[in-house]
Structure formats: C-alpha cells, structure tokens
Design goal:
Elements lengths: L4 H18 L16 E4 L5 E8 L4 E9 L4 E8 L9 E7 L5 E7 L16 E9 L2 E8 L7 E12 L2 E2 L12 E5 L3
Antiparallel strand pairs: 1-2, 2-3, 3-8, 4-5, 4-9, 5-6, 7-8, 9-10, 9-11
Bound molecules: 2-acetamido-2-deoxy-beta-D-glucopyranose (NAG) (5 copies).
The site of one 2-acetamido-2-deoxy-beta-D-glucopyranose has 2 residues, from loops.
C-alpha cells in the first residue's frame, strides 16, 4: 500500500496532539487541599514541579514541591544560597513511613555525604507538611524572610529510604541534572 504524504501528515498531527494533551504541566494542577499558588515551574528532570506564592512584604515564599515518586523513596527540594549544586544547599526532605505517616523536615546539606537528619536551615522555615497521593509526594512549606533578593539556585532530588533514613541518591543521569535558577518574582 502506498502511504500518501497527507495521511502521514495527519498521523503526525494526531500524535502531537496526543503528546501535548498527555504532557502534564503545573499550570492547571489542582491541589487536593485546594491551596492556590500563583506561580509554578515545570522542572526539567525527575517529573517534578514547584509551585509558590511570593510575599514581598515579608520576603517569604509559600512553596509546594511535588514529584512523582514511589511510596518507599524520598524526595527533597532545596535552595542553595551560596552555590549552585548540592553542597551548601538548604533542603526539605519528605518520605512515607511504612505505617503511612509522613516524615518531613529541614536538613542542611553540608557536604557530599550529608546525614540527612533533621537540622536548622540558614533561613527560617515553617509550616512544613507533606502528603503522598496519586504516586506523588508533595512538600509544603513557608520559607523566609529570604536575604539576597528573589533569585536563587535551587536543587531537587530523590532517592531510596533505608531503615527510615534517606539513603544516597543515584549519581548519574537526571539525579545530577536537577538544579536550576529560580526567581520567586517571575
Ligand atoms: C491541563 O491542561 C491541558 C491543556 O489545556 C489538558 O490537556 C490537561 O488535561 C490539563 N490537566 C489537568 C490536570 O487539568
Ligand atoms: C546571602 O549571600 C551571602 C553571600 O553569598 C551568603 O553568605 C549568605 O549566606 C546569604 N544569606 C542567606 C540568608 O541566604
Ligand atoms: C510511624 O513510623 C515511624 C518510623 O518508624 C515512627 O517514627 C512514627 O512514630 C510512626 N507513626 C505512627 C502514627 O505510628
Ligand atoms: C502557619 O500555620 C499556622 C497554623 O496552622 C497558621 O496559623 C499560619 O497562618 C501559617 N503561616 C503561614 C505563613 O501560612
Ligand atoms: C500509581 O502507580 C501504579 C504503578 O505504576 C499505577 O498502576 C497506578 O495507576 C498509579 N496511580 C495513579 C493514581 O497514578
């Protein structure tokens, strides 16, 4: 059978429509809790999304970081106020315990072999919570006041949990590409 160019073209259109409609974006995501965030960013790797409201008067951001994840692994989102990669980043980590309760806490990443235990960040963080639903983990938090303007390097990550502790993440592929610049006022 001869396949006409027009037919091939139609197939391409149908395929691209399908790709567009199946691609998830953060813009029209509705939170189960009905929280509304005015800004969001589709992060480049690890099927992750950052949503936020920035409040200039308090130099604070209400954030929701969500990422596709299995219920037995951790996710983390961080600002690195002094560099661009992992070392020095100020993280919030979350995972689900076997009993279904969520662990979620701030943890400063002071080296390339961090303890990932609860700690104090270099900026205030409050109202931390996390949920696991629909194969996604979401971290909610209020961060700030933030010094040094509204543009930051941020880092996000995921890895396995071992004996109720976050264990080392993969050091190849998407897990080493998960960093970007972020402007809370964009
Ligand atoms: C988001 O919008 C796109 C395009 O308008 C649509 O195809 C998709 O189903 C929407 N997703 C959600 C979760 O509403
Ligand atoms: C602001 O930037 C300085 C210089 O990079 C850094 O030492 C400091 O930790 C930053 N402060 C905060 C709160 O991020
Ligand atoms: C669930 O398991 C974690 C880790 O073992 C424990 O710290 C926590 O207290 C448990 N929560 C409940 C409600 O049993
Ligand atoms: C943090 O949570 C408390 C208690 O739920 C609430 O009263 C307060 O408004 C929250 N703060 C922010 C900045 O959302
Ligand atoms: C969650 O993941 C499982 C396994 O991949 C899949 O079968 C299921 O449909 C997913 N559920 C949702 C709500 O996406």
């Amino acid at each position: 059978m001869e396949i006409s160019p027009r037919f091939t073209f139609a197939i391409c259109i149908i395929q691209s429509l399908f790709l567009i409609s199946s691609a998830q974006t953060c813009k029209n995501y509705t939170f189960p809790s009905k929280q509304v965030f005015s800004s969001c960013s589709d992060l480049t790797v690890l099927q992750a999304y950052l949503h936020w409201n920035y409040i200039p008067s308090t130099k604070s951001a209400h954030i929701a970081y969500r990422a596709s994840q299995s219920s037995t692994r951790w996710i983390a989102w961080a600002i690195n106020p002094t560099g661009s990669g992992m070392a020095g980043s100020q993280a919030i980590v979350a995972f689900r315990h076997a009993n279904g309760s969520m662990a979620v806490y701030p943890t400063p990443i002071d080296s390339y072999t961090p303890s990932m235990q609860p700690g104090t960040l270099s900026f205030p963080v409050s109202n931390i919570s996390a949920i696991y639903a629909d194969n996604e983990t979401t971290i909610f938090a209020v961060i700030g006041p933030l010094a040094n303007g509204t543009t930051f390097n941020h880092v996000w990550q995921e890895g396995p949990v071992s004996n109720t502790n976050p264990a080392i993440h993969s050091t190849t592929g998407p897990n080493v590409q998960s960093m970007a610049k972020l402007d809370f006022q964009s």
